[in-house]
Design goal:
This protein is of the alpha+beta class. It has 3 helices and 3 strands; from the N terminus they run βββααα.
């Protein structure tokens, strides 16, 4: 095993779940993102970040309340500049 992990993140924010890390038992959402974490050492830090970041605040001004891929990339690059 190469240490790579995957997390699934909800992109729908209408019910306040934008940015929520999904478990296999969570209900299906209309839009989910699969994020590959290659750096095993950053795994816990990224999980904590996703759980604490105000994703709903980010989508506040968006009519559909849905995270786009570029939102996630922009936030991660700003908060983790050493990630590829």
């Amino acid at each position: 095993m190469n240490g790579m992990t995957m997390i699934y993140v909800c992109a729908d924010g209408g019910d306040g779940t934008a940015g929520k890390i999904l478990s296999p038992t969570d209900k299906l959402y209309a839009c989910e993102y699969k994020i590959q974490i290659i750096d095993r050492e950053k795994h816990d830090e990224l999980i904590n970040f996703f759980n604490k970041f105000d994703w709903n605040g980010l989508t506040k001004g968006i009519a559909m309340k849905r995270l786009k891929q570029f939102h996630i990339i922009e936030v991660l690059k700003k908060n983790f500049p050493d990630l590829n």
